[in-house]
Design brief:
The structure is a single chain. By secondary structure, the protein is an alpha/beta fold. It has 2 domains: 197 residues, 3-Layer(aba) Sandwich (Rossmann fold); 241 residues, NAD(P)-binding Rossmann-like Domain (Rossmann fold, 3-Layer(aba) Sandwich). The protein is 43% helix and 13% strand. It contains 17 helices and 14 strands. The strands form 3 sheets. Strands 3-2-1-4-5-6 form a 6-stranded parallel beta sheet, with helices on both faces.
């Protein structure tokens, strides 16, 4: 099958490469000529484990190519996927659909014969119907269908998620569209992947509802963590205790500094806005947004308290700045709230991240970016772990203490065991667990 993927961002590039791995002929389209030239040269614009090798394999096999010529790609395609960005409008919660409708206008001009136009971008409910009317107005003669096929890709595990998904969701309005999408995803039938066909509206809502539920789950356990700190509970024990309940499950019950990334922040805002306009406000999600924003800001105060209530003139060593490990994505990362707040209180920041420093340096000036984790620790008055990269899970504690000016660690991802850290001589502060003094200083406390 011939597929045109409009947009070579995270979703478009991963989806295009994976469809080509299924054996389909895929052309990825982007207006950014420099990006297309880089892709043709084998340079991948994002960090995603396994993606570079997957792209290279399928380009060599002749199944995957890149172009700026949207019209030529669409003319030859059986299915055209719209995978462009839908960021939140500045100062508003609404999704900005200008890129989606811009792509639809160009697709309308180029369609030749029956074409299935599929929204892969995350779009508010009702967008599919609006796109259908828009294209019909531009091309009354066109033979086409609109479908919705939301993505459920986790950054850092996107290829696995595409190849072995929990489910494939497709909103369709005709048998022809249903069968075309069924054929497109036929390789997944070998894994007995559930394929849910529904209406356009339900498909669009499924994506938002899923992300907002997960964001709610994260925010819930974060608030439980705050309660644990006040009453002497252990949030990890609580999370395990409730996660073993099959109705709840253990995933997304990891306390931390708040969610970020490309999906949860904008999708929670968009669903709140959509619900308000529909006259059915979703107060739970509205509260989740507010609590999460406040939480990210509160993490700087946690670091300051661990440093004795003042960080002016102090050096804070930071490990991890991306919103999660195995990605270079800085969008709405908690570090963007935490580190500037520490700088505003007079702290100097030394930081290291395995993949995110180039983008982070553009977003957060005045930080000293280091060559590795231990380089970041040199002369630090406290060590703060913001992102739980695997490289930070087995630090040499003796070396850490030698490099730091004071043995203080603030672990915002609960990587380490508080008892072990006290035994190693650290003042160790984590999330939702008791903060223990270094072994030998209990009486002083």
């Amino acid at each position: 099958m011939r597929v045109a993927m409009i947009g070579t961002g995270y979703v478009g590039l991963v989806s295009g490469a994976c469809f080509s791995q299924f054996g389909h002929e895929v052309i990825c389209v982007d207006k950014d000529e420099s990006k297309i030239l880089a892709l043709k040269d084998g340079k991948i614009p994002i960090y995603e484990p396994g993606l570079e090798a997957l792209v290279d394999e399928n380009v060599r096999a002749g199944r995957l190519s890149f172009t700026t010529d949207l019209k030529a790609a669409v003319r030859e395609a059986d299915a055209v996927f719209i995978a462009v960005g839908t960021p939140s409008r500045r100062g508003e919660g609404d999704a900005d659909l200008s890129f989606v409708f811009g792509a639809a206008s160009e697709i309308a001009e180029a369609m030749n014969g029956y074409t299935l136009v599929v929204t892969k971008s995350t779009v508010p409910v009702g967008t599919g119907q609006r796109l259908k009317a828009h294209i019909r107005e531009l091309r009354p003669d066109a033979d086409f269908d609109i479908a919705s096929n939301p993505e459920f890709l986790r950054e850092g595990a996107a290829i696995e998620d595409f190849m072995r998904p929990d489910r494939v969701v497709a909103g369709v309005e005709s048998d022809r569209a249903r069968e075309l999408l069924r054929d497109l995803y036929r390789p997944l039938y070998l894994n007995e992947t559930p394929m849910l066909f529904t209406t356009l509206e339900s498909s669009e809502l499924i994506k938002y509802a899923a992300n907002c539920f997960l964001a709610t789950k994260i925010t819930f356990i974060n608030e439980i963590a705050d309660l644990c700190e006040k009453v002497g509970g252990d949030v990890q024990a609580v999370a395990r205790g409730i996660g073993l309940d099959g109705r709840i499950g253990p995933k997304f019950l990891h306390a931390g500094p708040g969610y970020g990334g490309s999906c949860f922040p904008k999708d929670t805002l968009a669903l709140v806005s959509t619900a308000e306009k529909a006259g059915a406000p979703i107060r739970i999600v509205d509260t989740v947004v507010k609590v999460n924003d406040a939480r990210k800001k509160a993490m700087a105060a946690k670091v300051i308290e661990a440093c004795g209530g003042d960080v002016a003139g102090k050096t804070i060593s930071v490990l991890g700045v991306t919103f999660k490990p195995n990605t270079d994505d800085m969008r709405d990362a908690p570090s963007l709230d935490i580190l500037p707040a520490l700088q505003a209180r007079g702290a100097h920041i030394r930081a290291f991240d395995p993949e995110g420093m180039e983008e982070a340096a553009r977003l957060m000036p005045g930080i000293t970016w280091c060559d590795d984790a231990y380089h970041a620790m040199e002369g630090g008055d406290a060590l703060v772990i913001i992102t739980e990269w695997n490289a930070f899970r087995a630090l040499d504690f003796r070396r850490v203490k030698d490099l730091l000016s004071a043995p203080i660690m603030v672990d915002l991802r609960n990587i380490y065991d508080p008892v072990r850290m006290a035994e190693e001589g650290f003042r160790y502060v984590s999330i939702g667990r008791a903060s223990l003094p270094p072994r030998g200083q209990e009486d002083e406390e």
